[in-house]
Design brief:
21 strands, nine-stranded mixed beta sheet, globular
Length: 523
């Protein structure tokens, strides 16, 4: 089927100037982009001067299970997203043998909806996605956390030579089966126990396959520079491509480090992603010091947190009367941000849902408790399954980082509970706030960061541009394109997206979301 889009303001994803023009689609592919196309077509769509861009590429998403959920990718699709990269932060759902799945699912940070996991390998996960049908294109990294758990379980001990050999085999197999690269999440259990030899093993496998290593670093606060330098040295030793996940600086006392951080990225020609908010979302367990997590396995940790002497130690940690050991950095969020800037956004039990959207300070006041006691009581009662929203830096820093030319955009989507607004609003927020209102970058450059640069960085073949021979992943939006999601109303969808094509088929038609599954698994 040939579709002709006429009278558009074409922004082709390269960063070049916009122009008035037409685009001709034949089945999955774009076959012409020109100021005027007069060839016959089965369908003609008048863009009326609206912006026509490549479909947006979300380079950092935890929507690994969204395909199987009732809402699917609707919050993402209405942002103009046509491709998502998943399996990031060392977190994911494959590969993982069946006997190990129950325990991992119990504390899966990215959510554990009640669906059947019919897979155990990377390839069988991909097969399950394809059987169900994809609304958007997906490409997945192999998560280090799952690999380590297969080999070491909950142990905090460093890997020996035979275990590292097994790690290399598992990573090699997943990459051979089509994984996009290897992801690390170095603040999360059990990956935080990894030493340099273990990480070097993974980086060398990535280099062997000419695939990127994407990293949630050990620190994004007091030791962020040291954490980045650790990864730079690692990638140089292995000879692999390095990409930094959700670049940020946690805590006002670290704001001055932004220039040095960006200078390191420039000097070593690294890439990174970010979301356009000054607040994030992850597991509340991450507020605990690594030394405590190293001492207790997950179930034992819940028991230990009930003890008065352990609670006193935790209070001392949060008050910075105890400091991290050298070489074991930690983002001490209560000290860096204050309990008033940490909000509860997901819990497992019905009784705890009363706390959704409230700060730890507010919750503690209602319970007439100290914030430390409330936070630890909640973690224990929910068996660690609590997610938070944390305000980590000033918006001016978000904007400064966004203007760097080596950065791209990821939503860091986690479904379930009280959503972070980034799930529904990231890409239109950039266009509305950063481009139209703040004028931080021309629209053409912003679109390049959200499309062409992402496709080039992650070798997404024939994606991210409006050009002949490229796949017809296309977004059409007008000047009203905007995000509507807020902390109070995070489920509000973006508006202003007129049309969206995924591999040549319309997923959104004149603003209407359609139940079309034309996405592909990008291996």
């Amino acid at each position: 089927m040939r579709q002709l889009i006429k009278n558009a303001t074409v922004i082709d994803g390269t960063g070049g100037a916009a122009f008035k023009g037409d685009v001709l689609i034949d089945n999955q592919l774009i076959i012409d982009v020109a100021p005027l196309i007069e060839l016959a077509a089965d369908s003609v769509i008048d863009a009326g001067g609206a912006y026509l861009t490549p479909g947006f590429i979300d380079v950092h998403s935890h929507s690994d299970l969204a395909t199987f959920l009732p809402q699917g990718f609707k919050p993402k699709v209405l942002q103009g997203i046509t491709t998502e990269l998943i399996g990031v932060c060392g977190l994911g759902v494959a590969p993982l043998p069946k006997p190990l799945q129950a325990e991992v699912r119990e504390r899966l940070i990215i959510g554990n909806p009640n669906i059947d996991w019919s897979w155990d390998s990377f390839s069988s996960y991909g097969a399950a996605l394809k059987r169900h049908g994809l609304e958007v294109n997906l490409s997945a990294f192999v998560p280090h956390g799952l690999l380590r758990y297969q080999i070491c379980g909950n142990s905090s001990l460093t890997m020996d030579g035979s275990q590292r050999e097994r790690l290399a085999q598992l990573a090699d197999q997943a990459l051979s089966e089509g994984a996009l690269g290897i992801s690390l999440g170095l603040i999360y259990h059990p990956a935080l126990f990894s030493d340099k030899r273990e990480l070097l093993t993974l980086a060398q496998v990535a280099a062997k396959h000419h695939k990127p290593l994407v990293v949630h670093m050990r620190s994004e606060s007091d030791e962020v520079i040291e954490a980045l330098q650790e990864m730079i040295i690692l990638s140089q030793q292995a000879g692999c491509q390095l990409h930094i996940s959700h670049l940020k600086l946690i805590g006002r006392r670290n704001a001055a480090k932004v220039s040095r951080l960006l200078a390191l990225i420039d000097r070593h020609e690294l890439t990174f992603d970010q979301y356009p908010y000054n607040y994030g979302s992850t597991t509340l367990l991450s507020i605990l010091p690594p030394s405590l997590i190293r001492t207790y396995e997950p179930d034992a940790l819940m028991i230990a947190l009930k003890k008065a002497e352990i609670r006193q130690q935790v209070r001392d940690w949060f008050a910075e009367r105890i400091l991290p050991q050298a070489g074991e950095p930690w983002d001490n969020l209560p000290a860096l941000l204050g309990w008033e800037n940490i909000l509860i956004c997901e819990v497992g039990s019905q009784s705890a849902k009363q706390w959704l959207g409230c700060s730890i300070t507010e919750c503690a006041q209602k319970m007439d408790q100290h914030p430390v006691d409330f936070a630890l009581d909640l973690l224990v009662s929910e068996r660690g399954n609590v997610r938070m929203i944390d305000y980590f830096m000033d918006e001016e820093l978000v904007e400064q980082i966004f203007q760097h030319p080596r950065g791209m955009v990821g939503t860091d989507t986690i479904f379930g509970g009280h959503l972070h607004p980034r799930v529904s609003g990231s890409f239109p927020r950039i266009i509305q706030r950063f481009v139209s209102q703040r004028q931080l970058l021309p629209l053409e450059q912003a679109v390049h960061k959200m499309t062409g640069l992402s496709a080039e960085t992650f070798s997404l073949h024939k994606r991210g541009r409006l050009a002949p021979g490229y796949y017809a992943d296309i977004s059409l939006f007008d000047a009203s394109f905007s995000d509507n999601s807020t902390i109070d109303k995070p489920d509000a969808y973006a508006t202003g997206l007129r049309d969206l094509w995924v591999n040549g088929k319309r997923k959104v038609k004149q603003g209407e979301y359609l139940e079309i599954r034309s996405g592909e698994l990008l291996l």
